[in-house]
Amino acid sequence: MFQSIFIKEWLKIKSFLLFSILTSIIILGYFAFKLNFEFSTLEPESMMWYRFVQLEQKPYFDLIFFYLIFGCLFALFQFLPELIQKRVKVTIHLPLNLLQIVFSHIFIGLVFIIFYYSFISLSILAICAHYYPEEIVQIIFKDTLAFSLISIISYILVSALILEQNKKVLFLKALVSVLFLFVFIKKQFFINDFFILFTILIFSPFILLDSFYSVKQQRLKIFYKVGFFIISFILLSSSFLNYKENYQKEFYKYYIFYSDILGDFVYQKNFGEHRFEYGIKNDRTFLQKEYESYLPFVYWRDLDIQKKLPVTINERVFTKDEIKDSKLGFDYNYKLLKKQETELYPLFNPQTNEGMIKFPEEFFGIFKDGAKIYDFDNDHLKEDSKELNKKLQEIDFSYPVKNIWGKTTNIKPFDLGYLIIDNKNRLFNLKKENNNIQIKEIEYPKNIDIIYINIAENKQQNLSGYAIDKNSNFYLLTWDFEFIKLDLKEFDYKKMRLKFIADPVNYLIRYDDQKNYYAVIYSKNDYKKIKEINFKD
């Protein structure tokens, strides 16, 4: 009986399968041509690695839709003729129980689909292996596996939608299918994603079985209903988190600044639709022009155009150049805590006799079994990697690395390299200049557990960035990486945004969770807190 079902299914989908293989060859050929063109026209070629790892621009990502289209069309070619020609009732009356019938159809479909997806995925891997290091190729393998699982589940769900007879149930199943695609059409996949995917994959045949039962005006019982509810709840929750993280527009209810003219904080309250209120908390409000007049360090460009610079504040004269050169800003968002899929970083190599930092040919990574250096032309640079590992061994570096932070673009006036936390929580600075790799240990408060570091090289060469520890303590980093703790009440790195702003006199830090807005002003001379304020939405 299984052989009869196999022959029946083969006759239905053989033309479509042949057409799909021919189409895939054309698409893969175009993908190979386009990838080769991008690497050939970009200098250095390692910029493509940077786009992949740091910017999440994966050249094969759009192929997920090709996977999905094939899975959905396969379901249409397999089950739509059964429905149109009213053969479903004949099928369910074959001398097999309904469970065997459904799983026979799914098994046959999966044989062809897995064969096809294996061909596509292996081709993508073979093409990309010519251009990317093995650590990136491993990510490509993971992604193509995820694409295949998503498309297989989509095939089963579309099959269930085709056969479903009850319109209300059809709507629920269609909603679950849409939520599933909304959650899993994305660029990064982690272990928990695969756990959910395999869970849905195991359960999805029962959704199809329930649709088969609907032809007989029957339904699966309590086990299926509970499982369907759990799957729906997981997808609904994941959809909400996905929307909040990737699609929800950020909104600032308050913009808070410190006015050295008034010696107090002033605010701009945003009501939406370009409606604002300006004022001093619990004191008074004023018009926009008056508000701007109290903030010459913020609106200095307007003052320059109006020929009102230099400006005198508290008997001190501030020129245009002094204000301009003092400007500095750092930003933090809890989304920055998301780690890269692989720990590969551009290894900058500034030269003292050159005015601009070039984007490097070389990338480096520190993995469980040691460090590696790559470049596009020579792939794994074994001698350079050996030299780097020797230097790491000399400083007693402990594997695996916990975190690596640094600015991965060459759009910066200087290169301070990377700060690296090893397995024993020791902090190291790694950088390369004048063709020489340097590694040195950085002393920092040993009672803290660093969660995040931002390095932002700047022309002032006074501050290099900031650090945040596990207890949400905030530290400014001097140019030589000294940690200076600043007191930020109620700051929570897990859910808050933060902005650091420097002007000629003070440091301003604003942070909020979109409900509570805080601002603190510090003296630039001694980092002492001058004043703080908070607003509640």
From TrEMBL:
Residue intervals passing through the bilayer: 16-33, 60-80, 101-132, 144-163, 170-189, 195-215, 222-243
Keywords, in A-Z order: Membrane, Transmembrane, Transmembrane helix
InterPro entries: DUF4857
Keyword Cell inner membrane part of the UniProt annotation: no
Domain of life the protein comes from: Bacteria
Pfam families recorded: DUF4857 (PF16149)
KW Metal-binding (keyword) present: no
Record's protein name: DUF4857 domain-containing protein
